UniProtKB/TrEMBL annotation:
Organism field: Aureimonas populi
Keyword field: Signal
Position of the signal peptide: 1-21
InterPro entries given in the database record: BUG (IPR005064), Bug_dom1 (IPR042100)
Protein name (record): Tripartite tricarboxylate transporter substrate-binding protein
Lineage: Bacteria, Pseudomonadati, Pseudomonadota, Alphaproteobacteria, Hyphomicrobiales
Similarity comment text for this entry: Belongs to the UPF0065 (bug) family.
Keyword Signal assigned: yes
Taxonomic superkingdom: Bacteria
Length: 325
């Protein structure tokens, strides 16, 4: 057969391959799940739990790769430049939406560079310190930070991280400017909080629950409307008289724009199965993390949330004038 005849036959065959057959063919190699923060941190913990289940569904390993830096925008930039074939995906939290305004000079267009797999989880946050930090309770802590704002070291995972947003809310609510210390993720920030290298950290329950339960850190207040079920002894900030310190974190899964529909559908299906997996659900529950309802694990639902969150945060960030670059 001549080269031209082979090419013509190939083209004819590819035209006749039904979409579901393409879907069956994906993935043809291991899938890389980019995590924008350090190993051992809250995003990493969620990603690794989901990756295990998704590997079983997809019949290929889903390998977690931590690409840290610039509040998660390095990982998002890496995704934007990846081949759009479904073999690279990103698990990120709401920082994916806030960074659209926080970073004035992003190497990608947040509105056009990505396609959506689905929403993943929601996670509450809380304020912690080392067990022997001198403030005995939240009221004493507020007094202490008001008296010594500059000496108080508040850790975060960099502009765009939710620990950064949560810390900003805390400082606004209290009316102080503390000294902030950025880390590549709240995994190492929590380690340094326990070790006393920094004083305070606003972290997600996915990262902090074991440390609180094991006495590695002292929890002063949750940044939630109601107490967190898994940490019933920790009062909310509101209960303790501080208004305006409330934040909920959501996560989504993304692929590069132009990823074939069939591959994206398989990823959404694998994500749905992972979030219905009893082992995943139980581990999430222990960490105070809630999988989103199954009907929200759709590209449309994440796209709507992502775009509405960009609009929600834009005026707040612009008003604060706290840009990352
Ligand atoms: C992490 O995984 O380290 C966190 O999600 C970082 C953050 O946003 O605070």
């Amino acid at each position: 057969m001549t080269f031209l005849a082979k090419a013509a036959l190939g083209a004819a065959l590819s035209l006749s391959v039904p979409v579901h057959a393409l879907a069956q063919a994906f993935p043809t190699q291991p899938v890389t799940m980019l995590i924008p923060f350090s190993a051992g941190g809250p995003t990493d913990v969620i990603g690794r739990l989901i990756a295990q289940s998704m590997s079983a569904t997809l019949g290929q390993q889903v390998l977690v790769e931590n690409v840290t830096g610039a509040g998660g925008t390095l990982a998002a930039g890496r995704l934007a430049q990846s081949t759009p074939d479904g073999h690279t995906l990103l698990l990120h939290h709401m920082g994916m939406a806030t960074s659209a305004t926080l970073y004035r000079d992003l190497p990608y267009d947040p509105l056009t560079a990505f396609d959506y797999v689905g929403q993943v989880t929601t996670v509450p946050m809380l304020l912690v310190s080392r067990p022997d930090y001198p403030a005995q309770d939240f009221a004493a802590l507020l007094e202490m930070v008001r008296e010594n704002p500059e000496e108080t070291l508040l850790a975060n995972a960099g502009p765009g991280a939710v620990s950064h947003l949560c810390g900003m809310l805390f400082m606004q609510a209290v009316g102080v400017q503390l000294t902030t210390v950025p880390y590549p993720g709240t995994g190492p920030a929590l380690t340094d909080t326990m070790g006393g290298q920094v004083d305070l950290l606003c972290d997600q329950t996915t990262g902090a629950t074991s440390a609180v339960a094991g006495g590695g850190v002292k929890a002063y207040a949750t940044a939630t409307a109601e107490r967190i079920e898994t940490l019933p002894d920790v009062p909310t900030a509101l209960e303790q008289g501080l208004e305006g310190f409330e934040i909920g974190v959501w996560h989504g899964m993304y692929v590069p724009a132009g990823t074939p529909e069939a591959a994206r559908e398989r990823l959404t299906e694998a994500l749905r199965i992972a979030l219905a997996d009893e082992t995943v659900i139980q581990r999430f529950a222990e960490l105070g993390t809630t999988p989103v309802p199954q009907e929200d694990i759709t590209p449309q639902s994440l796209e709507a949330l992502f775009k509405s969150e960009i609009e929600f945060w834009r005026p707040l960030i612009e008003q604060a004038g706290e840009y990352a670059n």
